[in-house]
Amino acid sequence: MTVDEQHMQQALQLAANGRGRTSPNPMVGAVVTGRDGQIIGTGYHECAGGPHAEVRALREAGEDAVGGTLYCTLEPCCHRGRTGPCTEEIVTAGIRRVVVATLDPNPVVHGSGAEILRHHRIVVDVGLCAKAARDLNVAFFTWIVKERPFVIMKVALSIDGCFVRKGQRRTKLTSDTADSHVHSLRAEVDGIAVGSNTVIVDDPLLTARHVIRDRPLTRVVFDRRLRVSPSARLFGTRDAGPIILVTTEAQCEQQPDRVQALRDVGADIETVTNPDGMGRVLRSLGRRDLTCLVVEGGKAVHQALWFDRHVDRVQMFIAPIRLGLDGEQWLNREFVIKELATINVTNFGPDVLVEGDVYWNY
Fold first, then answer.
1. At 122, which CATH number?
2. Closest to 102 (Cα-Cα) out of 41, 32, 26
3. pLDDT of residue 168
4. Measured in whole angstroms, how far is the alpha carbon of residue 148 from the centre of its chain?
5. Which position among 54, 75, 89, 296 bears the catalytic label?
6. Rounded to 5 degrees, what angle do the CA atoms 195, 169, 239 make?
7. Quick check: is 147 catalytic?
8. Whether 91 and 189 share a structural domain
9. Are residues 93 and 219 in the same domain?
């Protein structure tokens, strides 16, 4: 491993410290070395609206940054948002060389940040550890490029491929260890989505419990027939974050009293003309700054997202339980696994998590 690679690896590790807190901004890490090659400053983007990684690293380096090298996991920004452009800070600091893992996919920045630095006679090298940098911010890249959240399809299954007992009965499959991991995931993503049947049968809270979460968690309910009751426990958790109920314009016209009752308990009603318009709904969620959405069910929602090719990652928890004829089958598990470009298998107590990115969006 070269010295440049070592410093970029450290910058990537620093960037990961912002996981779950920077959205809709990307996770970014930076390392500054002095003229002698020694590290004199490090930083990462801690939260949206806070100082960027480059600025934090340069401030730590101070005057010693003159003539030094900046390693950054993402192209420095060149526009003014909630903070000023990082390119100005880099030029002012007297940095001689900038090593960037990957260009920013945001068209406002893409290539322009590097070009501005080169205009000021700063050497800019792009592409070191590029795949690792893109993988770290896969949700951000998806949100920018596809204008929708990165979609994680999560399901808990019995060993024989069932996700629930027949007869719309609440079914607990996974262990407390696996459930703890699920709540850790909820602490990182921007939103959770479920179908109306999940709310009706399980009456879930859809909150991130036993973990630290510093920002609101958006909950999305797909309910094209307006079946969810205003008395559902979910509406008692409005302090945890917005609750968006997706239905059709036709149902809103047919059930105005139901719509008002749902709004009275905190539901934000999102309407679609086409009841199967998942793509439109996801783009609408993207406009709400949701960069990553975990879809926890039910089967109809999973099917719609899967067959419309909107699923980016699959998380399949498999419990050592057989439901047999009493269980209802999920999607074809073997077919779903064959569509994964990457597969990771992890044990959580007695359960197994099979996780991978879908090849068509990989």
1. 3.40.140.10
2. 26
3. 66
4. 11
5. 54
6. 45
7. no
8. no
9. no
User: Which residues, 6 or more positions from 253, have their beta carbon under 8 angstroms from its beta carbon?
Assistant: none
Side chain identity at 123, as an amino acid letter? Answer: V
Q: Which of 86, 106, 138 is the last residue of a domain?
A: 138
Q: Is residue 362 part of a domain?
A: no
- Angstrom CA distances, 65 to 37, 89, 159, 213, stand at 11, 11, 57, 35
DSSP class of 233: G
One domain for residues 236 and 270: yes
List, for residues 1-37, the tens digit of each pLDDT value: 999 999 999 999 999 999 999 999 999 999 999 999 9
pLDDT for residue 276 is more than 60: no
If asked whether residues 333 and 192 sit together in one domain, one would say: yes
The CA-atom distances, in angstroms, between 145 and each of 19, 80, 101, 345 are 20, 21, 18, 29
Residue range(s) defining the domain that contains residue 183 = 148-357
Q: State residue 219's pLDDT score.
A: 98
Let me know: does 160 contact 326? Beta carbons within 8 Å.
Answer: no
| Three-state secondary-structure class, residue 288 | coil
| 159-210 pLDDT tens trace | 999 999 988 678 899 999 999 999 999 999 999 999 999 999 999 999 999 8
- Alpha-carbon 201 to chain mean position: 27
Which of 74, 109, 138 is a domain's end point? 138
What is the structure's pLDDT at 88? 95
94 and 161 in a single domain? The answer is no
Contact 191, 220 (CB under 8 A): yes
Residues 173 and 223 in one domain: yes
Per-residue pLDDT reduced to its tens digit, 106-158? 999 999 999 999 999 999 999 999 999 999 999 999 999 999 999 999 999 99
Residue 69 near residue 96 (C-beta atoms within 8 A): yes
Q: Give the chain's domain count.
A: 2
Nearest to 32 by CA among 51, 3, 54, 15: 54
